[in-house]
Write a structure and sequence with these properties.
The complex is a heterotrimer of chains A (about 270), B (about 260) and C (about 475).
Chain A: E1 6-7, H1 13-39, H2 50-71, H3 77-99, H4 109-118, H5 120-134, H6 145-160, H7 170-192, H8 199-210, H9 215-244, H10 247-250, H11 254-258
Chain B: H1 10-26, H2 29-46, H3 49-73, E1 81-85, E2 88-91, H4 92-118, H5 121-130, H6 135-164, H7 172-204, H8 223-254
Antiparallel strand pairs in B: 1-2
Helix pairs in contact in B: 1-4, 1-8, 2-3, 2-4, 3-4, 5-6, 6-7
Chain C: E1 3-13, E2 22-30, E3 34-38, H1 45-52, E4 73-80, E5 83-87, E6 94-95, H2 97-101, E7 104-107, H3 122-132, H4 137-151, H5 166-179, E8 184-188, H6 196-211, E9 215-220, E10 222-223, H7 225-228, E11 232-237, E12 240-245, H8 247-256, E13 260-261, E14 278-287, E15 297-305, E16 309-313, H9 320-327, E17 335-340, E18 343-346, H10 359-364, H11 374-382, H12 398-410, E19 416-420, H13 428-443, E20 447-451, H14 455-461, E21 464-467
The chains are: A mainly alpha (about 270), B mainly alpha (about 260), C alpha/beta (about 475).
Chain lengths: ~270, ~260, ~475
Amino acid sequence: MSHPLTLPAADQTRRGRGRLLTALGIVLLAGTYAALVATQPAGLVDGIGQGVALATFGAYLAAALLLLAAALPQLPPAALTLIPIALALNIVLGQFVGSVMIPLYLDSIGTVLVGFLAGRRAGAATGILGTLVWSLFNPTVLPFAAGAALVGFLAGTAARIGAVRRVYLAPVAGLVAGVLAGVVSAPVAAFVFGGTAGVGTGALVGAFRAMGDSLLGAVTKQALLSDPGDKAIVFLVVALLVYALPARLTSRFDFVRRHRVLGRRAAG
Amino acid sequence: MLSAARLHPFTPLAVAAAVVTTTTALGTWWVSLAVVLGCLALAAAAGVLARLAVASLAILAPAWGSQLIIHGLAGRAGEHVIAAAGPLRVTSEGLETAAGLGARLAVLVVAGLLCALLVDTHDLVAAVDSSPAPPQVGYLVAATLSLLPQLAARQRAIGEAQTLRGARAGRGPSGWWTRLRLRAVPLVLSSVHDAADRAPHLAARGFPPRSRVTRLRRVPDSTAQRRVRRLALAAAVVGPVAVLGVPVLLPAGGA
Amino acid sequence: MSGVVRAEIGSFRYAAAGVDALSGLAVDISAGSLTGIVGAAGSGKSTLGAVLAGLLPRGSRGPAPGGGHDDDRLSGRLGLDGQQVVFDADHAPRIDVAAWARRVGMLPQDARHYLSGVRATVREELAFSLENAGTPRSRMLAAVESVAGELGIAHLLDASPERLSGGQERLVAIAALAVADPGAVVLDEPLAGLDADARAEVDGLISRLRERGTAVVVMSHAFDELVTRARTVHVLSGGRAAASGAPSEVRGAAEECGVLVGTGAPAPVPAGPAAGEALLEFERVRLRYPSAAAPAVDGLSLHADAGTCAALLGPNGSGKTTVLKAAAGLLRPEGGRLRVEEPGLLLQNPADQLFERTVEREVGFGLRGGRRNPAVAEVLGRLGLAGVAGTHPYELPASQRRLVALASVLVRRPRVLLLDEPTVALDAGGRRHLVDAIRYALETGAAVLLSTHDEPFAAAVAHRTTRLERAAPNGP
């Protein structure tokens, strides 16, 4: 049996399918978000509407799965071995940070790391897979997969456009990612769970509500107060971590080499 | 009565999905309570009651607190004010809303965690591999689950190594930063190195595959379970539609 | 006999590297043969192995958008099973790594990097490549059982890959390579770091592999029992072939190039002038890990005196590391008495403690003045690391990386120097620096306690030995 030892030039068929699935996922996500913001009807002000909860849960989860199906087949082996490491780092470092009583989540260090080293597709896939794995320990995180995907995607985008070539630019990119991810995730907290995962954030939402905000408005404001700062620190920490890696190691990631993510760093 | 070892991993997941969607659509507190109790009974039969209870409460307690504050204390709806202080109004409607949301959340958490405890992760991965999902999903989930204890152990080893060389971190933000650096840098450095070293060998073993994969592992299954899964999946969609649709249809049909 | 693999490498350079990693090499591997490739750490052995196995050059997905051509560069020709693949500046074919691996497989230095790490049993792990190729289940089962039977690891088939010992991991990884029935396998340091029993097992498995007709290429930093049986040995130095020929012909050249020849035992190290006072004492000590059911070590008595070196011997799993950790204060004894003065421990895995950007920052961490502390330059000079003071520790070959970890222990001038398997991963030059460091510590009045399974080394450097037995196998 004479199987050829070399590969033909890259094929384009998978890309087309990937683009289609990505577009479907984004349309579903954006459509759900727009519908929720536009139709906040009176009966929903208190967020218990069962149909809305199920529809939001389902649509956000389905959008995330579509994006995952689009991203996975195009990932190179270097990304496939990095992603599990990153997911485990999310959990292990997230626990470490929790254990020192600083009110930050930092549970996306690994996701952002993959975005920086392997690009936006890999970053988005990491965010979604991280949510799927973590849902085995906490099922309530499932509908937040789309928000996590956005963080990974934006980390990859930031790296691609050169926002990691200077360490001080990374937190700015993180701030932007935090705003977008917070806004996208707010409807899940508001309409699926009618609240947040912790008492502290709950008190904040309660305060906004008492001041007269709608539930979605209050949850969004709370997210905008905590998420951008958290993501700015995560992006900064990961940028510093990436610069602590030897150039010979970072240059083993095709994405880093192609887009000169770390600027003109020569490998030894 | 409940032999988790004989279950195809998708069977409990499909049943849980049907139960969660239908219960959520019903939104009746006593149904939710009954479902939670049912899950706890199943957990007791499978010998995982204590783990299920602890894991569920760890998630539910803070979330319930949040819902109570948002709806019970700071809710704006409701006529029956029980207590009020400045902008805070405790109304019976608000408490009812919080209780309803809390019950809905409890069903999702308890049913979901029960599945996670009953399902063998290796069987789950083999089932995902044999499903139409991209083969990368199974690998990535399995690799993450097997890496978690390894990374935690490495984290401990790094802590020991840093203690040995007398690396101390002060207090306050700079101490936090030093601690994070002492722990995170060696961990990230060695694990990213590991990942890069593994990649070519994973490719050499034919991953990612170009066609459907086969699995040596046989996942337990039966015709009955396949039927249950099909019914459950249908119920997961039809159940809520029926529950939510019927009250709307009824008056329309009656008019 | 026909050649299974024929490689003519003009030059090979890693992406973004300033110098060639390999140049002017020709390797010809005939069916069923045993070939040795020896060299000091950093001589290019692993790179050559990866080129033979088709893992290098790494194909990129087209040129970078900026136009900069930044990929691995290989010029030369590789011949496999009658197929020729030519690489040059204009023509860089992308290798189908999986197809190549069915003809030439490679075992990396760390066998765990080859194992997928995602399977529940060794049987499933062995089937991983076949699963990915979509092989029907019955054929997979037959192939796995036959390979495991012929290579003598059938008893491991139901074990969990996570619970294998270091030696067993290599057995399983080599068997996994053999499942695809490649014409040749490249084994990178298959015997390094194993105790005598495990070495014999791996060696036996390699012999059985050759009986099946598979050609074996062994990379080693030592002229060990495998290399001395090879038909041809290539000696690498700085990415070039320093010598090639029968083992007896190239032995001298290998020694000159920093390959460990013979047992590698150094000249005996005398006790220091201040011999006498006990700096470390164990008295009927019982040690148990918090999660373990049975103690790892029980009733252990030993002492290390100023100016002398004590060695802990025993097979893997006999509790040597546990004793050293207790001596360093990481584990409190459950019973008995333990006294120690100012210990410093070199751990087995240097990756656990390296975190700075340069060697000198690493060694100077936590000292007054950091890397500018005069003790840093002094220690680096003694360990032969002065020339790499500004390099990232991870860019060094394994042998030097281990010495960096040793430097970061020595720089604190511990009165009791604890060394856990210090010879592992060291090439001949590294071993010389290690022995010098031990001699220096003894001369300056420190005590040394080291664990090793390298008995000739222990006999030369230690003045007293304690032998630990493997604890009875018991629960988790």
